[in-house]
Design goal:
Low-confidence stretches: none
Order of helices and strands: HEEHH
Radius of gyration: 25 Å
Distance between the termini: 69 Å
Shape: elongated
Strand content: 5-15%
Strand order of the largest sheet: 1-2
CATH architecture of the domain at 1-48: Ribbon
Length: about 90
């Protein structure tokens, strides 16, 4: 793979070119081990990535089987407001 240039931001961040991310299967949330080797900066993809699912994966489809009952929700809210004597 040919050499590619990337710029360091004010926060010290760099963008890994898309072709390298694709070739190394680096995705959002992956971890990289970074170290110095002489005058080089080396980054390695850390093994066993994504062992624990994120919040999006854990909650995906949570409400799929539930019917949305707007009338019931509105009635519940109205009952609550009446009990609290709020107009």
């Amino acid at each position: 793979m040919k050499r590619q240039i990337t710029k360091v931001t004010a926060k010290g961040q760099i963008t890994i070119p898309a072709s390298l991310r694709k070739a190394l299967r680096i995705r959002n949330g992956d971890y990289l081990a970074v170290y110095q080797e002489g005058n080089r900066l080396v980054a390695e993809v850390v093994g066993d990535r994504r062992t624990e699912p994120g919040i999006v994966q854990r909650t995906a489809g949570l409400w799929r089987e539930r019917a949305l009952d707007l009338k019931g929700l509105r009635q519940t809210d109205n009952d609550r407001l009446r009990r609290l004597e709020i107009d």
